[in-house]
Design brief:
eight-stranded mixed β-sheet
């Protein structure tokens, strides 16, 4: 288990569609890591929609699809099998709809995507549909390995870039 990657959407109601986030996307400023440094991870419940085949131990990536810039902004590990609960959208929950949820342990989370849709338009990623508005989509093994390698290099670069900046002092 854990060989393939689940891509989960950061869409409306599930993680935000990014409205208002464009103010924090400044040209030339690296995305700030948001994972707590002391623990090194952030646990959260996330909707995997209708997908019931998301396996514990799988690698998961959060995809920003709303307001540009679009791309991958978080990654971690699926900790639990999907559990069906009340839908996250109030209108659907009121109608009795249910959806699947998993527990994610995010080891990397950024304010803005560190792997953009422009990056994902290049080989070997170009043939995959990254903009699917549905959580729990599987990425095939060889592509998942290439994605994880790109993600790791971008994480290292983003963390190094933010670490190199002098700390701001609060008064």
């Amino acid at each position: 288990s854990g060989g393939e990657v689940a891509v989960v959407e950061g869409g409306e109601g599930e993680g935000g569609d990014g409205e208002g986030d464009e103010r924090s996307h400044r040209q030339g400023v690296p995305p700030r890591p948001l994972v707590r440094r002391r623990r090194g991870h952030f646990d959260t419940t996330w909707s995997c929609g209708r997908h019931r085949n998301v396996e514990p131990g799988s690698r998961a990536f959060l995809v920003r699809l709303g307001v540009p810039p679009k791309g991958l902004f978080g990654a971690g590990t699926v900790m639990t099998a999907p559990v069906e609960r009340r839908h996250w959208r109030k209108d659907k929950a009121a109608a009795g709809a249910k959806t699947g949820y998993v527990m994610l342990r995010l080891d990397a989370l950024f304010e803005m995507p560190i792997v953009t849709f422009d990056d994902l338009a290049q080989p070997p990623f170009a043939g995959f549909r990254w903009g699917i508005r549905q959580s729990g989509v599987r990425v095939p093994g060889p592509l998942a390995e290439a994605l994880d390698a790109l993600w790791q290099s971008r994480c290292a670069a983003a963390v190094a870039a933010t670490s190199a900046k002098p700390a701001r002092h609060r008064r």
